[in-house]
Amino acid sequence: MMGATSDSKEGRKEVEEPTPEATPSDPTPGGTTAEVAVPVEDEQVRYHEGGDLRAEEVESGMAVLPEVTQSTEDVTIEDIQVGDPTVNSAEEINRLRRLIWRRRHLLIGKGNALPPAARGIVCDIDVGGAKPIAQRVRKVAPQFREKLSDLIKGLLGARITNMSTSPWASPIVVIIKKNGVDIRLCIDYRLVNSLTRPMIYPMPLINDLLEDLDKVLWYCSLDMASGFWVVVMTDRARAISAFITPFGLFEWNRMPFGLKNAPQIYQRMLDNALYGFTRISRLEGDPALKQPDPETSPDLIPSEPKYDGKKSVLGRRSYIDDILITAQSWDHLCNRVEGLLDVCDEWNLSISVVKSFWGKDRVEYLGHKVSSHGLEA
């Protein structure tokens, strides 16, 4: 999946143990006392000491701090992974490759940099009338602090995060992988998520998405670049997303993993792009939805009904940012690819060149190998 997504999915397959958290008086291994980097206590802010984190809770409400790059590699037409020379003719491969290359501004090369912001979608967090919760900073062992510092500098340099003055603060947690050496740095959003009003939106059922895939000849398995990061945060969401570290308080400019409604927000956006329920339009007058970055200034969630008589782009839903195109013939496949590129252009959605495969007779999709011969786990 997305640059950040791919890391998260792989990490979820491992059994990991968290490091202990610290209270303000916890001594560090070097004998000094951990600093508590929280604002001066305010009656409008609820301060929380936090509790022990169990390994089984790692998946729930955790946002991984990913390693990022300042830029991605340039893409060439040869990088587009189309067909199979042993199955397809050179004419077929070149036809589809040229079609995709005409929209090369949508293609993202190798790397994990900030993608362009999507249009028509923002991430907002509604906690009702809850007081801001400022959790205490958790201790990070000396051997992990340099890693944390590098991750934070990378996120700041890529403009994925900013320094924050928010009254909210969720803590950093160090997750030690099962080999006992490698780590993941995560944000514990369990308290924020417990206050967040849930977004009621149906996620696709895996069995439905895998149905009848053996009845076609050609497939494209596509990965939308950097997934959730294409969604801009509202000012309110940025403040609530703030996370505290030994190096200070930071907040997200783009939607991270681990927030309660993040999958539903992204799924709704992609469903709308593929099925065309509403058109992109700008909403006015809601200060909670003020855009944080005037340079990108994406439109807000659209509300105007759209009916142009057109059928859905692919005739099927995606699973978040994993898109599968199916077709009975090469002509049909090219038409569907062109339709998908049209909506990606309209919504400003980028596609990972490295993780996308076009015009194949066999692909991997949602943990299965898919072909006209059936599914293989």
From TrEMBL:
Segments for region (Disordered): 1-43, 285-306
Protein name according to UniProt: Reverse transcriptase domain-containing protein
Endpoints of the signal sequence: none
SUPFAM superfamilies found in the cross-reference section: DNA/RNA polymerases (SSF56672)
InterPro entries xref list: DNA/RNA_pol_sf, Rev_trsase/Diguanyl_cyclase, RT_dom, Viral_Replic_Matur_Polypro
A Pfam family it matches: RVT_1
Domain Reverse transcriptase, first and last residues per copy: 156-370
Comp. bias (Basic and acidic residues): 7-16
